[in-house]
UniProtKB/TrEMBL annotation:
Domain GH18 as annotated: residue spans: 27-369
Region forming the signal peptide: 1-24
One GO term (biological process): carbohydrate metabolic process
Family in the record: Belongs to the glycosyl hydrolase 18 family. Chitinase class V subfamily.
Organism from which the protein derives: Dorcoceras hygrometricum
Keyword Ion transport assigned: no
Superkingdom of the source species: Eukaryota
One CC-aspect GO term: extracellular region
Gene Ontology molecular functions: chitin binding; chitinase activity
Protein name per UniProt: Chitotriosidase-1
Pfam families attached to this UniProt entry: Glyco_hydro_18
Amino acid sequence: MASPMKIFLIFSLLPLLQLQFCSGQNAVNGVYWFRDSGFAASNIDSSLFTHIFCAFADLDPQTRQVTISAANNASFSQFTATVQLKNPSVKTLLSIGGGSSNTTVFSQMAAQSSTRKSFIDSSIRLARSYGFSGLDLDWEYPQTSSDMTNLGTLLTEWRAAVTAEAQSSGRPALLLTAAFYYAASVNGLNYPVSSINRNLDWVNAMAYDFYGPSWYRFTNSHSMLYDSTSQVSGSYGIDSWIQAGLGAKKLALGIPFYGYAWRLANANNHGLLAPSTGPVGSDGGAIGYNQIRSFISQNSGTVVVYNSTIVTNYCYSGTTWIGYDDTQSVAAKVSYAKQKGLLGYFAWHVGVDSNWALSKQGNSQILMQLLLSCVN
């Protein structure tokens, strides 16, 4: 048991520790910023994060070079300087691709040495010229076994180029990360774990979008941490990565700052797995946490539930049912990440938090785990 004086000293030093565990391993407390969300980079409270991912750069289908659209150029070029005003130590990464990007273009780029080189060289140039600390690959998703093999080669060549550039420039090497599927295989294809282990600083495991009202006609959590009845859960995904050989310290658990709204078939049947007739609203029922909080406050009869068995929140009012992560889920997931020895967590995306409630919960949970690690 730590003495009261030791606990006091650690609390006093927390701002100086910068989320560094006693072993010296930095924790990742990351978040994505998506310009198209309409949330200005200048509004980000970067003091709550260690890493911020700027989304998204594009992959040119002709040149295979990484580019930034004219619409994004001004905000991307100033992104690092903007977020470092509030937190000079925050690291920024340029994220390439995204869920709406063309997976075929990534496949074609990765298939040949010359096009991989175009991708790699252009990405490094952009990161340096825009002041980013690293690069993040968001290829959703490789479609063939050749894609997976080529992905492994791409990562090897990317790491070699980043190392060589750092040596020649005298600057710290760029971070290399990737946002991958929640599990170590996707569409029956195994990720090149050996190459990932050697060449990436870490993987952002996207442990969300498991279920949605556009493709399932029953309510469910789209980001449950546990599910004893299936292999669709965050914990299963993390275990599959580790069992495939990826080090736990190479993993960050994904947490969504959004949920999905279902239309109940019967307002009186409103639990998990209740029949649904489809999504509420546009965008397949996707709804930001800030909108969820507004829905709850504007509908006085809304019932809010936290299910600790699978780790999810949901609420319902009338025929509207929304599954999402609230502060209880975030706390449980960050604690899980620490207990599993993971590097940390990340969230998609910062623009839909509500008064920083989820961001602050994740940040405070990381700090508490840090404190416990240091005093025991």
